[in-house]
Design goal:
The chain has 341 residues and is α/β, with parallel strands linked by helices. 26% of the residues lie in helices and 22% in strands.
Length: 341
């Protein structure tokens, strides 16, 4: 499914199957997750920010089976089930050499910049070294791990030191990413009180089933008053993880206790405002968190193999990609949509 023009539906077409050599690997897609980032790309929201060259095949959440390997590939054979990271890096810049691959100066982001993604039957990956083995797991269930799970997992690990028994963490937006965030909080900070904030009662029900202690429908009540006044008794919360990233951010900061941390993750908005006095006097921290690393992907797969992660997947056929994107745009996907060729 190819994007030829911003704001237009994807087109289904036949393209040549990529050839591989050296360390390169060809993956037969088992599942490709449908992400809000794909919507931003397709609708042209990032056309002046990200140097995408059209046409391109979207899709950065991919899992499947090894279909072909180059002559320098080691440790992988045809048919091995694998999770595919959302891209690759130069491995030579200062950020890569310090292990902060997500900050690479010249990254390739599959389905966005530099390479086609997994809205297809096959996808190319530059090196076997980035693939994660997922034997025993369903690629359709695992595909969203490459972003929808990895992104909140990495965000939580950045602020784990701020969470302690009886601390409070707010998860704003409990769709695909937020649902994983609640589960990771339960594993990594089990004695933390989790507050779920969303505009959908159904998604809040799912959040409760995953371990959220408090539910706030911000369409029905004032979220700030509910969280700070009622739930924390005026104290405020230690961490806010925002997976929306729109006007919610300007409210989030007022939820924080002294020394609290706000982690913006969602990319729906453009700007947000901070209260200068509160931020300085109460020593708030704003911690950006983009994507995550290879080791974190392996850790997520390890948790999945221990049945610590539940995914809410709605399957679509590959040719139904436009329908899946429209359902996501309308808020009709309770967890994660996955395309299955």
């Amino acid at each position: 499914m190819r994007l030829y023009e911003y704001g237009k539906p994807l087109r289904l077409e036949d393209v040549p199957v990529p050839k591989v050599s050296g360390e390169e690997v060809l993956i037969k897609i088992g599942g490709a997750g449908v992400c809000h980032s794909d919507l931003h790309l397709i609708e042209g929201h990032w056309k002046d920010i990200i140097p995408t060259t059209l046409p391109i095949t979207p899709g950065h959440e991919n899992a499947g089976w090894v279909a072909e390997v180059g002559d320098k590939v080691e440790g992988f054979k045809l048919g091995d089930p694998v999770l595919v990271p959302g891209g690759w890096t130069c491995e030579a810049c200062r950020y890569c050499r310090s292990g902060r691959f997500e900050l690479c100066n010249t990254p390739v982001m599959m389905g966005l910049v530099g390479a086609d993604g997994g809205y297809a039957e096959y996808v190319y990956y530059k090196t076997y070294r980035g693939l994660v083995k997922i034997a025993g797991l369903d690629p359709v269930e695992v595909a969203p791990f490459a972003d929808a799970a990895l992104t909140p997992y990495s965000a939580i690990k950045k602020v784990l030191g701020r969470l302690y028994p009886d601390s409070f963490a707010v998860v704003v937006g409990v769709g695909g990413l937020g649902q994983y965030a609640i589960q990771f909080l339960k594993v990594l900070a089990p004695e933390t009180n989790i507050i779920a904030v969303d505009v959908s009662d159904r998604k809040l029900e799912i959040a409760a089933s995953l371990g959220a202690s408090y539910l706030v429908n911000s369409r029905k009540v004032n979220a700030l008053e509910e969280v700070v006044g009622k739930v924390t008794g005026g104290k405020g919360v230690d961490v806010v993880l925002d997976f929306v990233g729109a006007e919610t951010l300007s409210t989030d900061v007022y939820m924080l206790c002294k020394g609290g941390v706000l982690v913006p993750v969602g990319l729906s908005g453009q700007t947000f405002t901070l209260p200068v006095f509160n931020t300085i006097i109460f020593e708030y921290e704003i911690v950006g968190s983009f994507y995550g690393g290879f080791n974190e992907l392996q850790e997520i797969v390890a948790l999945a193999k221990k049945d610590k992660i539940k995914s809410f997947i709605k399957r679509f056929r590959l040719e139904e990609a436009n329908e899946a994107l429209e359902a996501l745009k309308k808020g009709e996907i309770e967890g994660r949509a996955v395309l299955v060729p």
